[in-house]
Amino acid sequence: MRNPSTATSAGGGPQAATTTAKTPCCSKVGLKRGPWTPEEDELLVNYIKKEGEGRWRTLPKRAGLLRCGKSCRLRWMNYLRPSVKRGQIAPDEEDLILRLHRLLGNRWSLIAGRIPGRTDNEIKNYWNTHLSKKLISQGIDPRTHKPLKPESVDHHKASSSKANRKTSSSKSNNNNPAGAAASSGVEETNSGGSTQIISNEQNLYIENTSLDHHYHINGNNNNASHGYSSLLNCGDGTCGMYLRSNVQGLNNEEDEDINYGTDDVFSSFLNSIINEEAFTSQQHQQMQQQADLIVPSSDPLVSISTASTIGGGSSWESVLMSSTFNRNDPIKKVNDHL
DNA sequence: AAGAAGAACAACCGCACGGGT
DNA sequence: CACCCGTGCGGTTGTTCTTCT
């Protein structure tokens, strides 16, 4: 195993630029590409320590680097940031990656956002080199988390083909969590037994029968028509939450009252999905109390939605998760979504 | 010991999106 | 509205390292 802390062992380097017809990411010739040297790292780190991140396009010149801004940003984000954790992926991290991938598909930045110290690139590489193969060896399709059919194609290889690149990398087409599962209208049961994933063209429903948990993940939620634009983020900017009343059950799409949950409640909710743990009655009561603040008590059904914006920044990635409960019996949810 | 094959992963690439003008 | 810029994302590439034969 190579030492991951060294900057001189990686591929995709200058040779690639000179031997292929590809145009480099930066049009300017004369910029250095390929592995970073310790001297370059030092220049970049010192500059960012002094001036801060951002303005990547002009940063190289200001920092005295013969690199393009993209390259600088990548190096900083994936390697040089103090918060980046190096070293082997721990078993619990691996387990979390698997669970998150089952929920979110190839949303590497979202997955990385839930795993402290790990970058999307690292998780993506780990998935491609370890986990996808591991799943295949277990007879599980790494894209859908469904059992592999004998005649099915090798999705890992298929997804690596150049032909698939454009469509598969398109964000507008990539908002369906769990990738292919959500586009095929399938119904499935995970290997653990109790979690069902039911999906159609736009939505993904997760139903944990043993825990009486039902979640709805809308794969087409990246618009502002449901009050997202005014959604508050939680303290660290990684998540947001709103409550929505549903006077006519779940058919009322009006976000007449928007309120915001706490980070704790959101995290509990998300973790309950990730970990398939019981979302405790106390947590439900917390949610109900918040709902009571804004929804007239005559409305029996309340939908609670959470929108994760992990990654945040200029690309506001979100995954909507909502559950509905009857305020008269908040523990047992109503699941008219399904 | 040497070559081949496979594994690992940093880096590159094209594209999409939001904000500013 | 159109364009530009900055930023970030997911897919892919290509070199090095490790293991196998």
From TrEMBL:
Question: Under what name is this protein listed?
Answer: Uncharacterized protein
What are the alphabetically sorted keywords of the record? DNA-binding, Nucleus, Repeat
Main site of residence? Answer: nucleus
Mark out the compositionally biased spans (Low complexity): 160-184
Residue ranges annotated for the HTH myb-type domain, each copy included:
28-80, 81-135
Its annotated compartments are: Nucleus
Domain named Myb-like: residues: 28-80, 81-131
Q: Polar residues compositional bias: what residue ranges?
A: 186-195
Region labeled Disordered — which residues? 1-22, 137-195
Q: Which Gene3D superfamilies match?
A: Homeodomain-like (1.10.10.60)
Q: Where is the composition biased (Basic and acidic residues)?
A: 142-157
| Keyword Iron carried by entry | no
Q: State whether keyword Transmembrane helix applies.
A: no
InterPro entries, sorted: Homeodomain-like_sf, Myb_dom, Myb_TF_plants, SANT/Myb
